[in-house]
Amino acid sequence: MAKQRMLQFVDVDKQMPAKRVADLRAQDFDEIYGEFAEEKAAEQSSRCSQCGVPYCQSHCPLHNNIPDWLRLTAEGRLREAYDLSQLTNTFPEICGRICPQDRLCEGNCVIEQSGHGTVTIGAVEKYITDTAWEKGWVTPVKPEVERGESVAIIGGGPGGLAAADRLRRAGVQVTVYDRHDRAGGLLTYGIPGFKLEKDIVMRRNEQLEKGGVTFVLNCNVGEDISFADLRAKHDAVLIATGVYKSRDLGGPGSGAAGIVRAIDYLTASNRKSFGDEVPEFDSGELNAEGRKVVVIGGGDTAMDCVRTAIRQGATSVKCLYRRDRANMPGSQREVQNAEEEGVVFEWLTAPKGFTGEPVTGVMVQKMRLGAPDASGRQRPEVIEGADYVEEADLVIKALGFEPEDLPTLWGEKALEVTRWGTVKADFRTHETAMPGVYAVGDIARGASLVVWAIRDGREAADAMLATFDAVATGVAAE
C-alpha cells in the first residue's frame, strides 16, 4: 500500500466508520459501528497534524502515543502501530469502543478546534487492535522470569485486569477474586453489547488466563474468604471492586413495584445475551418489552438503559434529566445515537414522586437553570406550578453509584475511607494506609471512566513491582 502523507486534514474530510441504520440496529445488541478498511484507516490517520504539543495525548488519561500510531497506520505499518498502542494501554480495543473520545482525545484535537473535524482516533485505535487479534499478534503473556511474589486482586474489572496483565508480564503470581461468574466487571455485565460485544471481553480474560493469571470466580470477599486471609496468603492485595451501590431516589411511591436499579436492569440484559437463566427478566420484572419506560439520569449508564429498552421492544422510552443538553454528563455521541433510535429526552425535568402500585407514572417537576453552584455548574431550580405526570410502567433509576462500606463488609476497621466512602489511597502509588494493600479505579476515585481505572491499575502494579524489587535488593522504594 502506498504510504500516506500526513497533515491531510485540509483535503480529506473527517469520516467515521459506517453506522448501521437506526431501525435495524435497534432490533439487536450488535455493535452499531462498522470497521474501517485498511485504506480508510490509513486515510483518516493521515489527517493528523502531528502537533508539536499533542493535546489528544495530554488529554488521554493513559497518555497514549496517539500521533505516533496514527502516523504508522497512515504508512501501513500496522504491526508497529499495535506494538506502540499496547505499550501504554492494556486494552486498546476496549477503549477504542467505549471511551468518550468526544470528551477526551478527539474533543481536544487541534484540527477539531480549527474547524476541520477531529481525527477519528477511537475508530482507528479499534481498527489497529482488531487487526492485531485477527493477525495473531496478540498472544498470551510469557514473562521472561517467574517471580516468587504473589498478588491478590479483588475485582476483575478494568482496573484489576490491567494490574493483573502488568504484574504477570513481570513474572508475578496473580490471583483475581471476583464476585461474578465471569470476570470483566462492568465490561461484562454493565456495558451493553451494542457498545462492547462480549466476545471482545471474554477473549481478553482468556488471554490473561493462558498467560498464567488465576481466576477465582463466584467469590465474595468477606463471605467466601476473609480479607485477612487474603493478606496472609499473598504478598500484596489490590482492591479493585468498583462501585456497585446505586444512589437511591426518594419521594412518594418510590418503593412501588416497577421501579428498578440500572445495574440490575443492565446485568439482567447482559446475562440474557450470554444465554443465562435470568428469572427476573423472564418474569418481566427487568424486561422492557411492551412497556412505557422512563429512565431517570443523565450519565452514560442512563444512555445504556434507554438504548437497551429500545432493543427490548419498549413501546416508548423517555429520559428525564434535571439540566439541559449542554450540561449533560453523558457522551453527546451517545445522546445522538439514542435519539436516532427513538429515545425522547425531557430536558430540565426531575422526579418528585411516583403514582400507582405497581408504578403507573412519574410525578415530574419542570426545572430551570439558576446561579452556579460550588462546582461552577448552574444549579437546577424548580418552576412552581409546572408539575405533570409522565406515564410509565417501568422506571429505571440511573443516578450513579456509590462505594460499598468495605471496612464493615470485610471487618477491617483499619481500612481507611474518605468522607465519600471511597478507599483512601496515595494518588501516585495507590497504596492505602495498610501496608501492602492498594486500591484503584472507582472504589478509590469514585465513579469514573474505564480508561482511568486502567491507568490506576497499571500505576499500582508498577508501584508493587518497585516495592518487591526494593525488598529483594534491600533498597527502599521511592
From TrEMBL:
One annotated GO molecular function is: oxidoreductase activity
Has keyword Transport?
A: no
The reply on keyword 4Fe-4S is yes
Q: Where in the numbering of this chain does the Dihydroprymidine dehydrogenase domain appear?
A: 25-136
Record-given protein name: Glutamate synthase (NADPH) small subunit
**SUPFAM superfamilies per the record?**
alpha-helical ferredoxin, Nucleotide-binding domain
Query: Where does the source fall among the domains of life?
Result: Bacteria
Q: Which UniProt keywords apply?
A: 4Fe-4S, Iron, Iron-sulfur, Metal-binding, Oxidoreductase
Species whose genome carries this gene = Aliiruegeria haliotis
Q: Which residues form the FAD/NAD(P)-binding domain?
A: 150-457
